[in-house]
Amino acid sequence: MKYQLELNGISKSFGPVQANNGISFAIKPGSIHALLGENGAGKSTLVKIIYGSVGPDEGSMKWYGDSFSPNNPFEAREKGVAMVFQHFSLFESLTVAENIVLGLDDVGLNDSIVNKIEKYSIQYGLSINPHQVVGDLSVGQRQRVEIVRCLMQNPKLLIMDEPTSVLTPNEVTDLFVTLRKLAEDGCAILYISHKLEEVRQICKHATILREGKLIKNCNPQEHSKDEIAEMMIGKKIIKLTRKNIKHGEEIFSINNLNLSSEDMFGVNLHDINLSVRKGSIIGIAGVAGNGQDELMRMLIGEDRAPHSTLIFKGKDISKLNSHQRRQLSMFFVPEERLGHGAVPNMGLDENMLLSRPSSSRMTRNHIIDWNQVRRLAKDVIETFNVLTPSVSAEAQSLSGGNLQKFMVGRELIQSPELLIIAQPTWGVDPGSANKIHQALTDLADQGSSILIISQDLDEILSLCEQVHVINNGKLSPSVDMESNGLETISQLMLGASIQ
Amino acid sequence: MNELFIQIVLGISIASTPLIFAAIGELVVERSGVLNLGVEGMMIVGAITGFAVQFHYNNVVLAVLASIVAGMMLATVFALLTQVLLTNHVATGLALTLFGLGVSAFWGRTYSKVTVDRIDAISIPGLSDLPVVGPLVFSYDPLFYLSIMAVSLVWYFLNKTKKGLILRAIGDNHDAAHAIGHKVVRYRFLAILFGGAMAGLGGAYLSLVQVPIWVEGMTAGRGWIALALVVFASWQPFKVIVGALIFGGISILQLHAQGFGVNVDAQYLSMLPYLMTIIVLVTLRVRSKSKSDRVMPHCLGKVFHSTQ
Amino acid sequence: MIRLQTRTNNSNAMVFLSPILALTLTALSTFFIFFLAGVDGFGAFYVLFIEPLSTKYNFSEMLVKAAPLMMIALGLSVGFRAGVWNIGAEGQYTVGAIVGGAVGLYFYEVEGFWVLPLMSLAAIVGGMLYAGIAAFLRTKFQVNEILVTLMLTYVAILLLSAMVHGPLRDPDGFNFPESRLFHDSATLPIIWEGTRVHIGLALAVIFSFLTYFWIKKHISGVQINISGSAPRAAKFAGFDENKAVWTSLLISGGLAGLAGLLEAAGPVGQLVPHLPTGYGFTAIIVAFLARLNPLGIIFSSLLIALTYIGGENAQITYDLPSSITSIFQGMLLFYFLACDVMIRHKIIFSFSKNINHE
After folding, report:
1. What's the whole-model pTM score?
2. Which of A481-495, B18-32, B223-237 has the lowest average pLDDT?
3. Looking at residue A411, what is its pLDDT?
4. Which residues of A have a CB under 8 Å from any CB of B?
5. Residue A47: how many CA atoms within 13 Å on its side-chain side?
6. Buried b (16+ CB within 10 A) or exposed e, C206-222
7. Rounded to a whole number, what is the distance in Å from the CA of B112 to chain C's nearest CA?
8. Which residues, including other chains, have CB under 8 Å from residue A233's CB and lie 6 or more apart?
9. Neighbours of chain A (3+ CB pairs under 8 A)
10. Among C242, C230, C244, C294, which residue's Cα sits nearest to residue A354?
């Protein structure tokens, strides 16, 4: 039979990172086909290749039997590929009709378009008002605009990137009705998601990626959730490497933290409760986009939390900024290195100043003691084996792994009583990752507490003695590792609701 | 009809026309998301070019075309630097103004004591002879009518054509426009060129209609006023005309203010348009928070990096 | 098509070559323009760039012009580093002159060493308050400071005109729109005998070093840098973004205001409508040419001042309009901006129709 889209041996690298490695699968016409995998598995790169935004290094594609290699999105759209972006590509100051026209080729703005829009919206149950300004629409409504825009191209393949992450349960149900109708009408759907529950509801075909490779093509409805989870996340071996686990009293707690995100694409935090004892390593597992960013911003102090939600060493630190928190011996390593944890075009020595409690003696009466700064920088570089030509080399000249070592080291030499770190080894070479893990366990052995937020389950399981899962802004209670711990974690991560 | 009244109305329209040209050009540029501080430089280059060509060839059409080309040439430099080489917009725009002022002064040094035939008011058969309306509305020079037409065309382009829609989209969200596949740099480049053409035209009006002589620095800050005008008009084409009439009107009224027995107040009166522009800016912001009503092009001034 | 490709490491060679390349290109272009205009290229060149350095008078005048440029540019460079675009230094300069000058006129004929410092203080405060308007609007309402400061410049110039036509007008001046000449206690002391070089130059150089040390040694100076380069990192470090905006605008407003007073109380000697001569805008060029480095500003302000004097000389000798300097200044900045791109990027000329390139 002719497949709508065939991929053969698609490979793509960005520098040292191999995003896609020999991916081959096929999508049947009129089918709803899931593309599963954790973040970083290679899903978005693959999709960009299909949509023509990026070209593959190796491999080929076929569209309904004919060779297919789009040079740009225009060519892909011409063939019949349509895409609903995860964060949408809409223009807030323009109306719905104008937004739709912009995504269509060879179409002008006139009454017939407005009629067509209404026709499609009724046909597929996606109610939208062509004359409304997009800026006034809710997220769910905006997604409908994105979808209608795609549908009016009469696509044969509709790619949807994490479509339900911003929808309410009712909206999800409505969306699924629409998708089924589309498939019935002959349009294939490539449904990208990490939400297992939903995928099993709506997809009969799935392709599972992990670390850039294809793991399996299967029918998700024929496998148990555990089997699929294992395929997506891989077989994890729980091994603890800590020698000296001694717990003290509670040093830090999050109490009933609720947050409404101002960002439309942000995740609201609901009733987060967490207790951290002295000397323990706590892990928060979860796929990216479930509230980790929002939580991290609260913990660092970039966003202020409501009163009495964050208590550290008995003090209410909810309203303190990051510098004030550092003075109390609470330190942080954020997920994003360049631009957030480090200033790209400044030297490593200057970057030391981002984390400068009085105890570091890097400043005295607001005057910087550069000798001390450089001394500390050298300390960090030597202790953590940061490969760099000099202490004043620009942060952006370092490799990811080395910069991460630097960022971790910068906080560790302050002997933090509490270290909060997000994605400690994301994009980091194995050698550096190892070093970082060792440094973290050493720190806890000395009596400090660590809170790790990570997508990497391997990492969480090997470092943490207490694991929570964050999903859709809710934090699970500590998972009992004794009975089916791994399965519980996987399911929580992949969409089972947190009670 | 009161002679003085007609004179004032005429004066206001003549004062407004160069502002209309320069502002409508910059409006298109800003709708695409670019802030070009070099309007003053492009205007004055247009002024000297138009004047010089008219002086040598006594051909009004040629002179006007030449001024358009001159404005566009200067605009090309700005476009190349900011859109292709990604230089700092503020610095580049200022350099453009400075350079334009210098080049025009240098070239114009031999033309400081000569005059040319100015572009005269035209009379439209039938219409110009109408009582009251005739002298008030239908007896201006052709460039004035051209300026109104330019505004209308820009309005039509932005609101009724697909390409105008794409331009507006680029000014709203250049990343999304790029993701869909629209050519951001190309549109901005062309918009900048159009801005240059209009600024050049506005400058030519100064040296060929308003006063048919050349004086070094004769734009006297009108390019900067045009920038204010665009904001004052909330980036809407027809409001540019209103704003230009106000800004132009104030300068004319100030001239006549002495005659009306008002002296010191003239400066304070002249401050009003600028203060009002600031108020408009604040109001837009305050409104846009509660209504998510985006009047100012959201990407105005942001640098566009096309990434893979 | 021309394309930019980011280098992995900044090219150290280009850091030095770029200004030299820019100067060379500018010189060649100026030559070319002269040639086209039928002016003796070498001669004009001498008059523009060499002659200003050749006599005591010329050299001193260069210093006189450099002082306000330096002072304003210092303030602006702080703001630019923080991503705060103060385009209205000309307005703050004017307000400083008005306020400081008014104080001087209030104490007309009152002797005392304290008059001048008081005037200076008033000028600084005046400039600060004026720039503060933009800071307030930006931090409270996120209003673009480029447009606000620009509009306020016009208001300031009109205000000056209103003042010298009215309240500050010299009662014995035959109704000319100018203020009294500042009396002795309100005039700047000359630091170089026989020239107009006044204490303002010394102050400017001192400020230059102060600013340099502040940016390098004081934590709030470093904060300015970080806020401009990486706002998220600034938040991470616990820096307050609004503080950076206020600090930048207050400093640039204060320095510009002071520069305005120094011009009024120095070379000009009184308040006149044409006091604002564009230093506020030229200072922006000075700041960029120095790559926003406070010490570099000493040199770039001298360079730009040099072109001013050269331009005046060219006017006398060759009957060239004095705004020939504008050609040079504008071109220099163009070339400089373009050449500096090559520090971070390689410029590639390619004609391939590639995926995902425009």
Report:
1. 0.85
2. A481-495
3. 95
4. 14, 53-54, 72-74, 77, 85, 88-94, 98, 101-103, 107-109, 133, 135-136
5. 29
6. ebbeebbebbeebbebb
7. 11
8. A38, A210, A457, A490, A493
9. B, C
10. C230
Closest CB to C226 among A321, A332, A343: A343
Q: What is the pLDDT of residues A230-251, one digit of tens each?
A: 787 776 655 555 656 667 889 9
CB-closest option in C144, C326, C341 to B101: C326
Give the chain A residue whose CA is nearest to the CA of B299: A91
CA dihedral sign, ordered C159, C161, C166, C170: positive
Chain B 136-175, residues with CB within 8 Å of chain A CB atoms: 160-162, 165-166, 168-169, 172-173, 175
Query: Cβ separation of A339 and C232 shorter than 8 Å?
Result: yes
Domain ranges of chain C: 69-186+197-297
Two tokens, residue B102: 């210098």
**A101 and A107 in contact (C-beta within 8 Å)?**
yes
B220 touching C (Cβ < 8 Å): no
Query: From the CA of C118, how many Å to the nearest CA of chain B?
Result: 28
Say yes or no to pLDDT of B308 above 50. Answer: no
Q: Which among C7, C95, C133, C155 is the top mutation candidate for probing chain B, defined by the most B β-carbons within 10 Å of its own β-carbon?
A: C155
- Check: CB of residue A254 under 8 Å from CB of residue A273: yes
Domains of chain B in sequence order: 3-295 (1.10.3470)
Determine, for residues A91 and B173 on separate chains, whether the beta-carbon distance falls below 8 Å: yes
Backbone angle region of C235, left / alpha / beta, with phi > 0 → left and psi within -120 to 50 → alpha: alpha
Q: Which residues of A touch C343 (CB under 8 A)?
A: none
Token pair, residue B222, equals 């009108």
> Do the chains contact at A54 and B308, CB–CB below 8 Å?
yes
Q: What pLDDT digit, counting tens, does each position of B129-170 carry? A: 666 666 667 778 889 999 999 999 999 999 999 999 999 999
Domains of chain A: 5-233 (3.40.50.300), 250-493 (3.40.50.300)
For residues C95 and A106, what is the distance between their CA atoms, to the nearest angstrom? 56
Amino acid type, A146: E
C127-180 tens-digit pLDDT:
999 999 999 999 998 888 888 998 899 899 989 988 888 888 888 877 777 887
The confidence score (pLDDT) of residue C355 equals 42
CA distance C192 to A394: 44
Tokens of A97: 């009709």
Of A458-467, A487-496, C29-38, where does the model show the most confidence? A458-467
pLDDT at position A180 over 70: yes
pLDDT band at C9 (very low <50, low <70, confident <90, very high): low
C222 contacts on A by Cβ (under 8 Å): 350, 353, 368
| In the block, residue with structure tokens 């490969």 | A387
Residues in chain B: 308
Measured between beta carbons, the chain A residues lying within 8 angstroms of B173 are: 89-92
Cβ neighbours of residue C163 closer than 8 Å, sequence gap 6 or more:
C98, C102, C179, C271
DSSP state of B115: B
The total of other beta-carbon atoms located within 10 Å of residue B1's CB is 11
The answer on pLDDT for B192 being more than 90 is: yes
